[in-house]
């Protein structure tokens, strides 16, 4: 990741970069997401990414890239469900120091080699969200936006976030296990 305080005009091939994760499987799931604050004059940009066992966030304040902030670690019980992993985060700076994060959370399943493999018909993936009012120092409870045990949509992933009129909106894809059909769904957080 390379940082710029001038809208990218100072980025060149010699611009120093910061490595977020040493290695990551090339599976199309473990990607970083970034979003800037919608508040005029707030230079914060939050970057969310995953490792094999964590969902993490780092915040750039316009000068300094902050430390890794753990949003979730796996395995983890959240909202009464045991999750083995997570991927595909979305992040949004909110308020003067708030952060909202959403991600695909993979239910632990026996006899499923990779519970985060959306192409396995036995996989069950929910979308979870979590918020911090204080820049990631503390996190509120997990919210589950989906229930992957209910047919037909067993795979829920690829969240994105937006702030409209003070309401945080999370859009995500929901798939049938056959991948023949999917819908884009949305949840709102106040």
Description:
The protein has no helices and twelve strands. The chain has strands spanning 33-36, 45-50, 54-60, 69-73, 76-78, 81-94, 98-107, 125-132, 143-144, 153-164, 167-176, 182-189. The strands form three sheets. Strands 5-6-7-8-9 form a five-stranded antiparallel beta sheet, with no helix packed on it. Strands 1-2-3-4 form a four-stranded antiparallel beta sheet, with no helix packed on it. A hairpin with a 3-residue loop joins strand 2 (45-50) and strand 3 (54-60). It has one domain (33-189): Neuraminidase (6 Propeller), CATH 2.120.10.10. 0% of the residues lie in helices and 47% in strands.
What does the largest sheet look like?
Answer: 5 strands, antiparallel
Structural class of the helix and strand makeup?
Answer: mainly beta
Mean pLDDT: 87
Order of helices and strands: EEEEEEEEEEEE
Radius of gyration: 17 Å
The total of beta strands comes to 12
Shape assignment:
globular
Number of helices: 0
What percent of the residues sit in helical stretches (DSSP H or I)?
Answer: under 10%
Q: What is the total number of structural domains?
A: 1
β-strand percent reads over 45%
What name is given to the CATH topology? Answer: Neuraminidase
Low-confidence stretches: none
């Amino acid at each position: 990741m390379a940082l710029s305080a001038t809208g990218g005009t100072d980025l060149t091939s010699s611009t120093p970069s910061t490595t977020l994760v040493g290695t990551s499987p090339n599976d199309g799931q473990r990607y970083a997401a970034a979003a800037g604050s919608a508040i005029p004059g707030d230079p914060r940009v939050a970057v969310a990414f995953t490792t094999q066992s964590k969902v993490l966030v780092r915040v750039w304040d316009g000068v300094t890239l902050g430390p890794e902030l753990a949003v979730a670690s796996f395995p983890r019980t959240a909202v009464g469900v045991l999750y083995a992993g997570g991927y595909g985060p979305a992040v949004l700076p909110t308020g003067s120091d708030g952060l909202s994060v959403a991600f695909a959370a993979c239910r632990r399943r026996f006899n499923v080699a990779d519970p985060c493999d959306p192409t396995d018909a036995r996989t069950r993936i929910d979308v979870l969200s979590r918020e911090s009012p204080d820049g990631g120092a503390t996190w509120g409870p997990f919210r589950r936006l989906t229930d992957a045990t209910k047919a037909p949509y067993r795979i829920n992933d690829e969240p994105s976030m937006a702030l409209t009129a003070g309401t945080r909106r999370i859009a995500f894809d929901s798939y049938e296990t056959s991948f023949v059909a999917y819908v884009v769904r949305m949840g709102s957080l106040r």
